[in-house]
């Protein structure tokens, strides 16, 4: 079985590096420096998308949005121009509606499955990612050997598109828990609670979540620049897609729609390429206190 990987950014690159440890893969990215880096790691660096399609039986994608995925698969000189048969596995946190439309447009000899992940680049490096997989059993079976080399935490969600639905549901909680945690921190610190003590108590109490356990103590409180490795723009994209899916399928989502407005304001103020934790400036300004970097340095 020959594997390919397209999209070697922070997330895709970390996943592909795990695959290289156990499989021979051909890779492509628009960045020549990334192609060169992966060539040194033992991958075959292709010079085009079509070359990957011509070389691999299963091609994995990890791209910014479903729009790029559609272009890479169906566009001129895309995968369908050279891939004779096989499986395309989209690991993008994408739009399930677009994903299902792409699947319908593929020729019969090519099958699309979706396999978004949760856990970030650090989880990919450690081999602990949660991998959600949607698609036909036969197609998923072809991709499984490579996915198992990334992480043992693989969850079958149903037909194509369902994995991206689950990833959006997860990112809804990620987004809203972060905001709620920053609100709780600002209220506590403004009213005399030590920020490190606040984080410690929250991590042992009923309000505990990923943001209280990881984001506050490791990234926000010790650092004036609380960089965690995920952008405001991508977070806003994810919750926008969740909100749009709610509208399309008749699901009421009042909390996520409120969160979307907060992240939208943060993107306008700070820029989409800034780290997602920059949303804390909204709470620093609103409470007139310093939160990022207010704890003990690790």
Describe the overall structure:
- The structure is a single chain.
- The protein has 298 residues and is of the alpha/beta class.
- It folds into two domains: 3-159, Rossmann fold (3-Layer(aba) Sandwich), CATH 3.40.50; 165-287, N-(1-d-carboxylethyl)-l-norvaline Dehydrogenase, domain 2 (Orthogonal Bundle), CATH 1.10.1040.10.
- It is built from 13 helices and nine strands.
- The protein has helices spanning 10-20, 32-41, 49-55, 66-74, 96-105, 120-126, 137-148, 162-190, 195-203, 210-220, 232-249, 254-270, 280-287, and strands at 3-6, 25-28, 44-45, 58-61, 86-90, 110-114, 117-118, 130-134, 153-158.
- The strands form two sheets. A six-stranded parallel beta sheet has the order 3-2-1-4-5-6, sandwiched between helices. Strands 7-8-9 form a three-stranded mixed beta sheet, with helices on both faces.
- Helix 2 links the parallel strand 2 and strand 3 (44-45).
